[in-house]
């Protein structure tokens, strides 16, 4: 199975209707934007035409005013006609000022309105692209190259959001799933070393994921095995050793035994140097696994400890060995 190869095509009527609705909204918004831009352009041209006509009237009136002043001075033209020309000239000058203010105001409003409409259209187009992407995702493709080991789909079957459709196994890349008692939840960290026992021997792996959800008093961790690890099949059981107290070479370890039932790990019998006596001694233990206890204090490296049951002499302070 190559990456990107189509596997299953799903159908979602609601999503298809949503995409169609979004397409209609985008088309409507773009049409409204174009109509608004056309109206604004028409208003802009009308204002420019009005300014041209006003400037033309002002030019004519200024020329007539200059001619009329000389005629009035000669007594040929009445002063009332001169006053009328002056009044008309003042009117068109004031109208020009108003038209320029209107042009400036409309340019500002037009710029703001066009920006808002363009932002709205851009947002609708992004939403449409997102909806189309979801529609394209109905065609399920292989996310990676590998072996298609599982495909749980049937024609006409309904699948809920997040449902598992299948599985692709990547050759020579495996992860190990381990379930641990909830007691160790606070002791396990990502990156911790795990010794995995395979047919070819022991290999070191690392904890890559910790699922802290507790189910039936257990939680789950995932361990990434080294690449190109051979002779492994999906579902296979593998022995693994997780040293919660660190490496064996860095911790003082005591083998697990029946003594823990009587002492609770608070004390043990330690053999003396001559080997004929064992003295009760208080100890402190730390982390543990299925094989060892980590000893924090009470005994030293090289001392021998009785790890069998203490049921018959758990009140004694010293034992004589024969």
**Share in helix:** 25-40%
CATH architecture of the largest domain: Orthogonal Bundle
Main pleated sheet: 5 strands, antiparallel
Unreliably modeled segments: none
How would you describe the shape? elongated
User: Which topology of the largest domain does CATH recognise?
Assistant: Helix Hairpins
Work out the radius of gyration: 45 Å
Separate helix tally: 3
Lateral strand order in the biggest sheet: 5-8-7-6-9
According to DSSP, the number of beta strands is 16
CATH class of the largest domain: Mainly Alpha
Structural class: alpha+beta
* Count of discrete domains: 3
Sheet-strand content, in percent, reads 25-35%
N- to C-terminal distance? 70 Å
Mean pLDDT: 83
Short summary of the structure?
With 322 residues, the protein is an alpha+beta fold. It is built from 3 helices and 16 strands. The chain has 3 domains: 7-139, Orthogonal Bundle (Helix Hairpins), CATH 1.10.287; 174-242, Elongation Factor Tu (Ef-tu), domain 3, CATH 2.40.30; 250-320, conserved putative lor/sdh protein from methanococcus maripaludis s2 fold.
């Amino acid at each position: 199975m190559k990456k990107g190869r189509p596997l299953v095509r799903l159908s979602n009527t609601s999503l298809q209707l949503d995409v169609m609705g979004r397409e209609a909204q985008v088309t409507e918004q773009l049409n409204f934007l174009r109509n608004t831009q056309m109206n604004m352009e028409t208003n802009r041209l009308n204002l420019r035409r009005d300014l041209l006509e006003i400037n033309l009237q002002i030019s004519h009136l200024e020329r007539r005013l200059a001619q009329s002043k000389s005629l009035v001075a000669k007594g040929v033209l009445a002063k009332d006609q001169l006053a009328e020309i002056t009044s008309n000239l003042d009117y068109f000058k004031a109208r020009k000022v108003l038209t320029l203010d209107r042009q400036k105001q409309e340019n500002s409003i037009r710029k703001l309105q066009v920006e808002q409409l363009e932002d709205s259209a851009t947002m609708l187009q992004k939403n449409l692209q997102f909806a189309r992407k979801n529609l394209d995702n109905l065609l399920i493709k292989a996310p990676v190259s590998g072996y298609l080991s599982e495909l749980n789909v049937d024609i006409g079957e309904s699948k809920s959001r997040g449902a598992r459709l299948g599985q692709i196994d990547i050759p020579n890349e495996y992860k190990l799933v381990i379930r641990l008692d909830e007691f160790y939840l606070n002791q396990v960290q990502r990156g911790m070393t795990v010794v995995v026992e395979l047919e070819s021997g022991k290999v070191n792996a690392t904890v890559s994921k910790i699922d802290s959800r507790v189910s039936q008093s257990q939680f789950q961790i995932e361990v990434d095995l080294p690449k190109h690890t051979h002779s492994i099949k999906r579902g296979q059981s593998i022995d693994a050793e997780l040293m919660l107290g660190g490496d064996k070479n860095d911790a003082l370890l005591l083998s697990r035994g029946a003594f823990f039932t009587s002492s609770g790990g608070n004390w043990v019998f330690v053999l003396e140097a001559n080997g004929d006596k064992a003295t009760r001694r208080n100890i402190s233990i730390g982390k543990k696994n299925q094989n060892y206890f980590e000893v924090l204090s009470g005994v030293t490296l090289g001392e021998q400890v009785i790890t069998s049951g203490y049921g018959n002499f758990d009140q004694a302070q010293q034992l004589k060995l024969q």
